[in-house]
Amino acid sequence: MRTEYKIFMGVALFLFGAAAVYSIYTGSTAPGGDGGESVSGSFEGGVEWVGTVALILSGLLCSMCGGFFWFVARRIDLRPEDREDGEIAEGAGELGFFSPGSYWPFGIALSAAVAGLGLVFWMWWLLAVGLIAVIFTACGMLFEYYSSTRQPAEH
After folding, report:
1. Alpha-carbon Rg for the chain in angstroms
2. Inter-axis angle of helices 49-75 and 2-28, to 10 degrees?
3. pLDDT value of residue 65
4. CA-based angle 111:117:122, to the nearest 5?
5. How open is the CA angle 127-57-119, to the nearest 5 degrees?
6. What is the pTM of this model?
7. Cα torsion angle, 3, 8, 11, 13, sign
């Protein structure tokens, strides 16, 4: 986990730096030279806040992930990939259960697309149908192996 938190914190620092440079650059390169004149009525000058806030929020998201990985890395032993003398064979073994094939993710994606179309065209009934379908398909995927129709193989 040490590698992961270092990567996420590095990306977060880059994004915060990019936000600072972006806000300074957009503030100093206002159209018209003095920042008060409008070029074809589109932008009045000054800092472009949408990009600045997007970069700051992206940095905060990476900081949140990096903080989680740092928090977890303090509480667990070093993994083979975190140690300098770690061998590939040390990481061998069962990693978990992965579904061999399921159609539920396709149903979730289709339901989310229907909900997205309802949101785009502001058809509240289509949005409601899509969101209800997302809930049902997510529950179907969650309980896929708890029903009697599909049981994982015993080891």
Report:
1. 24
2. 160
3. 96
4. 125
5. 10
6. 0.59
7. negative
Nearest to 63 by CA among 129, 1, 126, 14: 14
* Per-residue model confidence as pLDDT tens digits over 138-148: 999 888 877 76
Q: How far is Cα 80 from Cα 28, in angstroms, rounded to an integer? A: 49
Q: Which is more confidently placed, 123 or 149?
A: 123
Token pair, residue 123, equals 């058809």
